[in-house]
């Protein structure tokens, strides 16, 4: 199965979001071998779900609380996310790690909250430009993975997204060979540490319709996590066609 995830971040107001979803629905369909998943803000998701004629779009949340429920002002629980109708939760995006100071320990707890609710988790990893330049990408990413996961996790509900921080929103990507190699190393680490041989690894960071075919043709890439280019329906649909 291949996946294309649209991470809208804090963009698209309710009506704008609805327009984009309507345009996407007209052009592309989920298939047995590939599907697209949209991650609007949760408020937009509710609005869109209440206003589209056919409820056949798969939605996810961009984050979830590390707590089950209680006095945690501003947070939204995995249970609520599930009730809204989301099937997926993105955890560990670099913006959450850096801007909101989310640690590996917090992310692990968030992932467990989501998995308890039978939500599927898209777990993000990725190195900084300095780490990349120093050739430290792979050990850093493997550390992120081994800190977040343990053998008790139901990996059937986990997808990994490799997003080099320096490629997010910058219009630069690693070389194709570098992307494939890092994905390969992640798969290898999953085998060594958790005995997992099948786990989708998506690439994210400046994926556009003019580079997506090359990226998706790489042996170890199972789809993409798309930010900027997912905000324009025609562009997102073009990318889906290359998957
Ligand atoms: P980008 O963002 O596609 O705009 O680079 C990717 C992401 O942050 O998930």
Task: Please characterize this protein's 3D structure.
The chain is globular, with a radius of gyration of 17 Å. The chain contains ten helices and eight strands. The chain has helices spanning 14-27, 42-51, 78-84, 94-98, 104-116, 129-133, 137-148, 176-194, 212-216, 233-241; strands at residues 2-7, 34-39, 58-61, 88-91, 120-125, 158-162, 201-204, 223-226. The longest helix is centred in the last third of the chain and has 19 residues, at 176-194. By secondary structure, the protein is α/β, with parallel strands linked by helices. It has a single domain (2-241), classed as TIM Barrel, CATH 3.20.20. An eight-stranded parallel β-barrel has the order 1-2-3-4-5-6-7-8, surrounded by four helices. Residues 7, 163, 168-169, 204-207, 225-229 line the site of 2-phosphoglycolic acid. The site of 2-phosphoglycolic acid has 13 residues, from β8.
């Amino acid at each position: 199965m291949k996946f294309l995830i649209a991470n809208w971040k804090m963009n698209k107001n309710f009506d704008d979001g609805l327009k984009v979803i309507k345009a996407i629905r007209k052009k592309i369909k989920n298939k047995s071998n590939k599907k697209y998943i949209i991650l609007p803000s949760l408020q937009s998701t509710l609005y869109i779900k209440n206003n589209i004629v056919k409820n056949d779009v798969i939605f996810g949340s961009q984050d979830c609380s590390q707590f089950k429920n209680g006095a945690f002002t501003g947070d939204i629980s995995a249970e609520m996310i599930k009730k809204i109708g989301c099937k997926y939760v993105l955890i560990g995006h670099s913006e959450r790690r850096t801007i909101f100071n989310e640690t590996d320990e917090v992310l692990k707890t968030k992932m467990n909250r989501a998995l308890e609710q039978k939500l599927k988790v898209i777990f993000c990893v990725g190195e900084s430009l300095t780490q990349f330049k120093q050739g430290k990408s792979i050990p850093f990413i493997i550390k992120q993975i081994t800190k977040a996961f343990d053998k008790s996790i139901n990996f059937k509900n986990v997808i990994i997204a490799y997003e080099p921080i320096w490629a997010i929103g910058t219009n630069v990507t690693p070389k194709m060979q570098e992307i494939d190699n890092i994905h390969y190393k992640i798969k290898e680490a999953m085998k060594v540490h958790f005995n997992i041989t099948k786990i989708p690894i998506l690439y994210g960071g400046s994926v556009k319709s003019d580079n997506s075919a090359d990226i998706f043709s790489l042996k170890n890439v199972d789809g993409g996590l798309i930010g900027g280019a997912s905000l324009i329906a025609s562009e997102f649909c073009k990318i889906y066609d290359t998957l």
